[in-house]
């Protein structure tokens, strides 16, 4: 379906301003599925020290393309380090991470020429290329340095490192399918066809580039109480079944940890339900189903062995199989959904908020497990941030991460990180305190040091 979608790249009437001490450029270029918009910001008197390619997150399903700008905290950290940054709108919206990689790589190799063409100014050719992004952009940044994609992309860029933050990857669609299908099961609607999910969940309203529940429907109200306006009160399970869904979600998203409860009772629970009812094609990015739960074991307890009740529950869960040819290798670049296999040979530093319910902390655990399997986990540093939202990083967190990452990439010492696999460490009340800068409203403060 995605092949039939068309997009328009038009520069906005009012362009964002450059940070103090830098220059910013905007223009258009020919990309994978049509024109794309570029943004380039360089420090004054930039000598080509290096460029960090910024990869933006999901931008919705509209036909108009835009370049979602990095946060000022990220931009300031990059510019203050003497690096330039460049970003593409990509030539397509929806979850098109393929266009994200190919269009970003083409821009990396050609932005000096584009700026000269559009502004009659010749920038220096960068001596180093790096890549960083958030959410779907984190998926793109992580995939861009993964061996399969490095070898198969149409535009090969020798990235010296990656900093994917709150990154999604191919497992995101497993999570979205699991949670929504389990809600159907636990609420007693397992006999309904999955496409009926949205009607049973409630009514929806726009929330930035996605949707959220406005009024809870019968499936949600079977498990949770509601606020006076009718929206779900995720912090108030109505019965043991509601609590069971909470406990299963905790295990699926990374296990017992601080800030999970705040993340579950946050707006992104409503947003996850806005994805319900998909047929597994990632809204037409693929031609067939990618979701598979044939071997998944869903747990609400933490004992090593499932309880008899859990075993019975899993026997009754409807099972689906993915089409093995849903996301094949291509001979014209990377896959439709590029894989993050944890197979890289450059320094990678990540950050993830502990309460993120949209792109859960579990993604970090899977990333490390894959890196261990490939024998390159010594090149991965991961940091847990005590926040309940999605990609909610403070300027101080960005500054520390970018500074430490650049030092490491350029031959300095490997920075510190958090252990994301030890369940005892993760469950500690102060987990995530080491790299969190600032206290978010509603999130427990860390224990003061002695």
- Strand fraction: 15-25%
Q: In whole angstroms, how far apart are the ends?
A: 59 Å
Look at the structure and give the mean pLDDT: 96
**What is the oligomer described by this structure?**
single chain
Biggest sheet, spatial arrangement of strands: 2-3-6-4-7-8-13-14
CATH homologous superfamily assignment of the largest domain: Alpha/Beta hydrolase fold, catalytic domain
Rg measurement, Å: 22 Å
Q: Count the beta strands.
A: 14
Write the H/E string, N to C.
EEEEEHEHEHHEHHEEHEEHHHHEHEHH
Uncertain residue ranges = none
Helix content: 25-40%
Question: What is the global morphology?
Answer: globular
Under the CATH scheme, the architecture of the largest domain is: 3-Layer(aba) Sandwich
Q: Number of helical segments?
A: 14
* Highest-level CATH class of the largest domain: Alpha Beta
Give the biggest beta sheet: 8 strands, mixed
Organism: Halopseudomonas oceani
InterPro entries: AB_hydrolase_fold (IPR029058)
Protein name: Alpha/beta hydrolase
GO molecular function: hydrolase activity
Brief digest:
The protein has 450 residues and is of the alpha/beta class. It is 31% helix and 18% strand.
What does this structure look like?
There is one protein chain. This protein has 450 residues and is of the alpha/beta class. The chain has two domains: 2-170 and 330-427, 3-Layer(aba) Sandwich (Rossmann fold); 172-316, no CATH class. It has helices spanning 72-80, 97-119, 136-144, 147-152, 172-186, 197-201, 218-221, 240-252, 260-264, 267-273, 308-316, 362-374, 395-409, 423-427; strands at 8-9, 22-31, 34-43, 51-55, 64-65, 84-88, 129-134, 159-165, 202-207, 210-216, 224-226, 232-237, 348-353, 380-385. The protein has an eight-stranded mixed β-sheet, with helices on both faces. The chain has a two-stranded parallel ribbon with strand order 1-5. The longest helix has 23 residues, at 97-119. It is globular. The N and C termini lie far apart (59 Å). Keywords: Hydrolase. This is Alpha/beta hydrolase. GO terms for molecular function: hydrolase activity. It comes from Halopseudomonas oceani.
